[in-house]
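thought: fold this chain, then report.
action: predict
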Amino acid sequence: MTKSASLLRVGLAYLVAVAVGAAWLWRGPDTSHLWLDGLIADSLATLEIFGFSRAHHNSSFYDAWWSVLPPLLAVYWWAAGPLGSDDLRCWLVVGVILVWAVRLTGNWVYAFPGFPHEDWRYPLLREGKGALEPLVDLFGIHLVPTWQVFLGLTPVYLAVTHPDRDVGWIDATAVVIGLGAAVLELVADTQMYRFARTKQPGQCTDQGLWSWSRHPNYFGEISFWFALGLFGLAASPSDWWWVFLGTIAMAALFLGASIPMMEKRSLKRRPAYQDVIERVPRLVPRPPRTRR
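observation:
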């Protein structure tokens, strides 16, 4: 299947998913809690995408949903909440999310070669699960990541529904970190694509941002979710004890699952990567150690 045809099918899946979620918000039972209405609509939309994944035997239908959902949910909470269109914090939050979402979705579109390509991690997760394989696909690849993104967005709910506090220095810090995270991810991905076009067999990148961190794109991603936590803190300081739970969950995902899987794969395919591990920090950027 060509890339254009594949993207068309993914786009159709997402349009139907958005329609399913919107139909629930419009005609479904009202829970009297905007955050819960959003969670239910989000989960139903993800179930629809799961149906497309199973029908095509390819779970990469879900890939871009990670970045497509957040701006939709943020705008829904803002529109359905008590704040008007002139609220500055709402504009700042939604603006940062849109910049991040467009950048990340665009990166996926650029890198996606078309079906039957599937993210290499998905078969590993499903492998050897037998009769439980559909449940692993449903929860491990679709619903749990959706709920994790939702948890990361809960500070946004505070930011776009709490009118009590004016915009201040915490909001400004969140804007700088959020936009900076998107720029960092853009630069890291661009450098990796440039390296991939000219690399030799077995060669590992340790140039640019990749000389300061083995996973600068993941550091940028965690920083983005931290920025959303700051927006929530600025809107409701009394909720300080939970607004960064989404950031912690994202860090746990990358440090406990994504990074170990990627590094194991890199070592298997490129033994020279061990030298990079010994010199370059795992996540938080800093100057590399001197090569032995």
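thought: worth noting. The chain has ten helices and no strands.
final: tokens above.
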